[in-house]
Hints:
With 295 residues, this protein is of the alpha/beta class. 34% of the residues lie in helices and 18% in strands. The strands form two sheets. An eight-stranded mixed β-sheet has the order 1-4-7-5-8-9-10-11, with helices on both faces. A three-stranded antiparallel β-sheet has the order 2-3-6, with no helix packed on it.
Amino acid sequence: MLTQIMKRISLLMMLLTGLSLMKAQEPIVISLWPDGAPNSNGLTGTEEDLQGGRVANVINPSITVYRPAKSNGMTIMMCPGGGYARLAMNHEGHDMAPWMNALGITYVVLKYRMPNGHDEVPLSDAEQAMRLIRQHAQEWGIDPQQVGVMGASAGGHLAASLATLCSSEATRPDFQVLFYPVISMRPGTTHAGSRSNLLGSDPKPELEEKYCLERRVNSRTPKAFLMLSADDKSVPPANSLGYFEALLAHQVPATMHIYPIGGHGWGFRDSFTYKRQWTEELEKWLREISNKGKV
């Protein structure tokens, strides 16, 4: 009888140990520029917490790193949207962490500075974040050649900027995932608020052209997964369509999912009718591109 009790206790302890090992680790917050950023957006004051999990006037850009209990080597950095005026940190950021970690993916949420007409500022933050991720590759048990970028809306423009305008191999993502992204900066196609916040009220034609990212695609652009709603009234579907066509023209592997309804800004919200569909499709795609096939 005592032997059976001891066996049951031993089994229970093993189960509890296994459960504890399955838990994702505590998130890590890392400042991008602890010694000060190399550029300025001209904004001062303090960071503003807005309703709905949004923040504005980011003064200290950072990454929050969510590490899974068992890493499959893949990392995804998420750039929340907000029209380059604020950041939707929850439904386009932190809320996806448990799902990503359950897939074995190291998930990183980027809190970047607003441009305020200084176009170089958000991209410099995104590039620095990519450097930091790869510098910690061994420590975090990740593959530095399986680091992707994800972005929503204006954050999708930043993610695609990183994919097409990055300054080095150290900051180039290995793949990109774009939610209803802003791509073009041309009036009539772009999102007007994102354009004015990034480029200023009266940008020079060459600056506008630089950030028309469908024009920046080349054969070295990372493979892409795009998703959007056909009835998006905030960011016209032409943004994604133009980018998708440019990717195909340069023989870059790309897939796109257009859902009939949903509008704009759904992110990870359960209220989006096609949440199950897009999450399943993205999981399949990530599994396909993974070197280890363990996503």
